[in-house]
Amino acid sequence: MAQILELHGYNQFKDYVSNLDSKSRPVVFYFSGEKLPNGYSWCSDCVEAEPVVKAYLNDLKKEIVFVYVDVGDRETWKDKACPFRTDSRTKLMVIPTIIVWNGVRRLEGSQCGKRELLDMLFEDED
């Protein structure tokens, strides 16, 4: 049910967001560290959360767009001027971070790997 996309780096993220249609399905962004040649992120917290998030998405019965965003390598992410940290729309402090776009709901760090918190994040708003 979830449409899954992958974006690499800030420019792809910025371009994607600028073309979002507010009438389309809800969009959820998952910010994670760049994948190494072995297929795993350099970010150990991201590696822990990813299988939980993937399993959750497989069970999710909602029409959403789930966008995996690679924030770059460790050096890029650790730079205090990293655009994912400074962009007022994301204000990332840690990765992984999951953000329901155009809302205030988010999970950060180890929260991303907890199924009960994912349930709460994806609950319908009244």
UniProtKB/TrEMBL annotation:
GO terms for molecular function: protein-disulfide reductase [NAD(P)H] activity. SUPFAM superfamilies: Thioredoxin-like. InterPro entries: Thioredoxin-like_sf, TXNDC17-like, TXNDC17_dom. Coiled coil: none annotated. Gene3D superfamilies: Glutaredoxin. It comes from the Eukaryota. One of its GO terms (cellular component) is cytosol. Residues 8-124 form the Thioredoxin domain. Pfam families: TXD17-like_Trx (PF06110). Belongs to the thioredoxin family. This is Thioredoxin domain-containing protein 17. It comes from Spodoptera exigua (Beet armyworm). The lineage of its organism: Eukaryota, Metazoa, Ecdysozoa, Arthropoda, Hexapoda.
